[in-house]
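Minutes, project huddle
Topic: does the predicted pose make sense with pyridoxal-5'-phosphate bound?
PN asked that the exact inputs be recorded in the minutes so nobody has to dig through chat later. Recorded below.
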Amino acid sequence: MVYQNTIEFAREMDAKDPLKAFRDKFYFPTFHSKEVVYLTGNSLGLQPKSTSDYIKNELDAWAKFGVEGHFLADKPWFAYHEFLTEKAAKVVGANPGEVVITHSLTTNLHLLMVSFYRPTGKRTKIICEAKAFPSDQYALESQVKFHGLDLKENLIEIWPREGEVLINEEDIIAKINEVGDELALVMIGGVNYFTGQLFDMENITKAGHSVGATVGFDLAHAAGNINLKLHDWGVDFAAWCGYKYLNSSPGGVSGIFVHERHAYKPELPRFAGWWGYDKETRFQMEPGFNPMRGAEGWQLSNAPVLGMAAHLASLDIFDEAGMERIGAKRDVLTAYMEFVIDAISKRNAERCQLEIITPRDKTKRGAQLSIVAHGQGKDLFDALTKQGVIADWREPNVIRIAPAPLYNSFEDCFRFGQYLEAAIQ
Ligand SMILES: *Cc1c(COP(=O)(O)O)cnc(C)c1O
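Predicted holo structure (C-alpha cells), as shared on screen:
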C-alpha cells in the first residue's frame, strides 16, 4: 500500500476501517487537551464505556443478595470466572480448558513456575531474555534462589549482539541447544516490553522441547495484540495481564494458560487453594487437595468479581471485534505510524534523527513502536505531552508508542506526526 502523510489520506483509511465503530466504545482522557492522542494501550488500555454497567450489575447483585449473590446473581459469583474463560481462550489461541482468568500477572508467573520450574539433577538452568521486564527478572531470580541454586550459573540471559538493540533469535536457539540437558526452563516475554520485538514462540517452544526443557511465555505485551496460537504451538504455560491491550482496569485480573497435556494431571505439583479444588466437592471442605482438571486447578482464591466484571466488559468487545480483524488492522495501522515517523524524520533530519528500534518486519512486532530520538532527549517527549500526546518514556532515551487497533485511528497516527514535528522544532 502507498501511504501518504496527509489528513485526507488518514481520514480515507479511517472511513474504510472495518473496526472504526469500536473507537466510540472507549473513553479517551481529556486532561491534557480536548484532542488527546492516546498511544499507551500497551501500558494501560482505555476504559470501555460499558465497563461501569458490568461493575454496576455486580454491585446491585451484592446489594440485593448479599452473600447469596454467589448463587443468585445473574452471573453467579462462585463460577464467575467461567464467563470469561472461552472469550479469553479465543484471544490467546487456546482450548477453554487450558485457560483461567485469576490473580495478577507476577503472582501467576510464580504459581506456574512452582509447577513448571522443577530443577532436578543437572537439569537446573533457565534461559530468559536479557533486560526482561523488571518484575519478571525478580520472579526468575527469586525462583532460582528459592531452590537454593546459584543465580549466576543457573539464570542465563540472552543479550543482543555487540552494537545491536534486538535479540537475534538464532542466539536463543543456539543457547538452548548448547545448554541441552542442563536446561530446565525457557521463559521469555512473547513481545519485549522495551523494544516491541516479537519472538517466534512456536520455534522457541520446539527448540526447548527438543532438548527436554519446559517452555513458558510472559504475554503481557502480546495478549490482545498478537495473533497467538498457544495450543497449536505446544507452549507449556503462559501468563498475561488484563490491563494492557486488554483494557480491563488498572491492576486488573490476569490470565493463565496451561497446555492440556499438563492441565489435566492432578498429580502435577502446585501451590493450592480452595478455588482450585474440584468444584463438585469444594464445599464439603474435606482435607486433602483434589484439583480441578484444566487450568482452573491453578486458582487459589475466589475471584475478585468487580475486577472480573471489568475484564468481561472488555473481553466482550474483543469477542465482537475478533482477533483476526484486530490483527489485520494492527499491521496496517502500525505500518502507517511507521511511515509517518519516517516522513517526519526525513523532513527534519538536521535537527533530529528518529530511529525506530522495533523490528521493521511486521511479522516480528505487534502494535508497539519504540523510537530513539537522536540529538533530542526528554525535552522532546515533554513537548509531545504538552500538546496532548500520551506516550511513554523509558530511560535512557526511548519513546514507546502503541496504536491500539481497537480504538486508535489513522488520524491519530497522522496527528502524532504533526505533534512530533512541532516538538522537534
Ligand atoms: C506489565 C508487565 C508486568 C506487570 O506485572 P503485574 O504483576 O501485573 O504488576 C510484568 N511483566 C511484564 C513483561 C509486563 O509487561
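Observations noted during the meeting:
- The mean pLDDT is 96.
- Residues 104-106, 133, 135-136, 189, 193, 218, 220-221, 241 surround pyridoxal-5'-phosphate (CB under 6 Å).
No decisions taken; revisit at the next huddle.
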